[in-house]
UniProtKB/TrEMBL annotation:
Keywords attached to this entry: CBS domain, DNA-binding, Transcription, Transcription regulation
Occurrences of domain CBS (ranges): 195-254, 256-314
Pfam families, sorted: 4HBT (PF03061), CBS (PF00571), DRTGG (PF07085), GntR (PF00392)
Protein name: CBS domain-containing protein
InterPro entries on file: CBS_dom, CBS_dom_sf, Diverse_CBS-Domain, DRTGG, HotDog_dom_sf, Ser_kin/Pase_Hpr-like_N_sf, Thioestr_dom, Tscrpt_reg_HTH_GntR
Listed GO MF terms: DNA binding; DNA-binding transcription factor activity
């Protein structure tokens, strides 16, 4: 039987893109409580089915394709620049391909304005009209309004016309920052990016027998399968050690391991790899907010993704990328060097605590890659940051392996500046063998 929560999600999926959604209306249409409607709408927002926009409301949007994640929707632009939608609300779900700053003559401006773009301009009514006719949305800076006929044109074309109190330069900087942040997010791999989908997943039902396990094992060569109830919710896991020596007619729910470890599609690759190493798990079920099976992720999937990440160049550069780029191997074996750049400092112009931590963890990681050909995930980190380090100082990082086993390592790290020790760290780490 389908739950009320699932009914609401299916109802939202059936709505047209651009349709406005409210808790009260959903509750009335489907005869559910306001609380149930609210929770389902929040789940739909997590799934990328709806978007909530200040002063507009919640609307049904088109789910973004992974390859277009770096593109912003006009609805996201409204939130970024704290804007007000003057017209064309039905087009808020659309994505912009580029933005054009209208600081030029009208004819020159129109040469750059094309369908799917966003024209950022002040109180220039003719530019507003021509941009909409070209298929572009309009962002009016300086808090200006526009004429009613232009708002009507925006509604007809389903292209947003937005007003913001910020100036053109500030707005452009804010949008650029948002696009850059999206590029960084794009490089973060989530479980949903690598998991085997439900359509290709082998699973067992609680009232099936052990003979079904043997059938799945023969067809897939896997030995560990999730167990679901009649609502497709994950309630257990069955592996070869659970069924060994048991009669093939015994029910699965009599031998399964209950309350298994699960992850969601938005769990990061780093998190799931840590869980698999720490708990010795080969396969983890992927579930949604209702605990229903969405697929599985295997240790092999995780290792392949980790190797792929190491081969790919970074596009959106984080502070870790900057630290990693500046950290080079010294002429002396087992020592790494780094120069303190402006991006690595705090407001006082000295090396920030966060960057110091990143330096010692990155140096430790490289040491283990050289010695054991293994990656590490930090389990415990103790830092002694003794002295401030000035900008443009040269640091020498000396990681020393104190103890190592099959699954763990203990590393002591010392950081020097001009032969003076400026900080130390002690790391306990799990090994991820390549």
């Amino acid at each position: 039987m389908v739950t009320k929560h699932e009914q609401i999600i299916q109802h939202i999926i059936s709505l047209e893109v651009g349709h406005k959604i409210s808790v009260r209306q959903i509750a009335k249409d489907l005869n559910v409580s306001d609380g149930t409607a609210y929770r389902a709408i929040k789940e739909a927002e997590n799934q990328g089915l709806v978007s909530t926009i200040e002063r507009v409301g919640t609307i049904r949007i088109e789910k973004k394709k992974k390859e277009n994640i770096e593109r912003l929707t006009f609805a996201e632009i409204v939130n970024i620049i704290d804007g007000q939608v003057l017209g064309g609300k039905a087009g808020l779900y659309k994505t912009l391909s580029k933005f054009v700053i209208g600081a030029m003559q009208l004819d020159a401006m129109m040469r750059y304005t094309e369908a799917g773009s966003l024209l950022i301009v002040g109180n220039r009514l003719k530019a507003h009209e021509l941009a909409l006719k070209e298929g572009a949305a309009v962002l009016i800076t300086g808090g200006f309004d526009t004429e009613e006929q232009i708002k009507q044109l925006a509604d007809e074309k389903e292209l947003p016309i937005i007003s913001t109190s910020y100036d053109t330069f500030t707005v452009a900087a804010m949008i650029n920052r948002a696009i850059y942040d999206q590029l960084i997010k794009k490089e973060i791999v989530f479980v949903g990016d690598i998991a085997t989908p439900i359509e290709e997943t082998s699973y067992l039902r609680s009232k099936e027998t052990i003979s079904k396990w043997y059938e799945l094992n023969e067809n897939s060569t896997h030995t560990r399968f999730p167990v679901v109830d009649e609502k497709m919710r994950v309630i257990g896991m069955v592996s070869s050690k659970d069924i060994v020596g048991k009669d093939k007619n015994v029910l699965i729910d009599k031998v399964m391991s209950k309350k298994p470890q699960v992850v969601q599609s938005k769990t990061s690759l780093a998190s799931v790899s840590h869980t698999m190493v720490w708990q010795g798990i080969e396969v983890i079920p992927v579930v949604n907010g209702s605990h229903q099976l969405q697929g599985v992720v295997s240790r092999q999937d995780v290792l392949k993704a980790l190797q792929q990440i190491q081969r790919q160049p970074q596009v959106g550069e984080t502070i870790e990328d900057i630290v990693s780029r500046n950290l080079v191997t010294s002429e002396e074996e087992g020592i790494f060097e780094s120069e303190v750049t402006p991006q690595m400092t705090n407001q006082l112009g000295t090396l920030s605590n966060g960057v110091f931590t990143t330096l010692i963890t990155e140096a430790s990681s490289r040491l283990m890659q050289q010695m054991k050909r293994a990656d590490i995930t930090i389990e415990n980190l103790t830092v002694y940051f003794n002295k401030p380090v000035q900008i443009e100082s040269k640091l020498f990082i000396k990681p020393e392996l104190l103890d190592v086993g099959r699954l763990y390592a203990k590393i002591d790290v010392e950081v020097y500046n001009e032969n003076t020790i400026v900080g130390k760290g002690l790391i306990m780490a799990q090994l991820i063998n390549r």
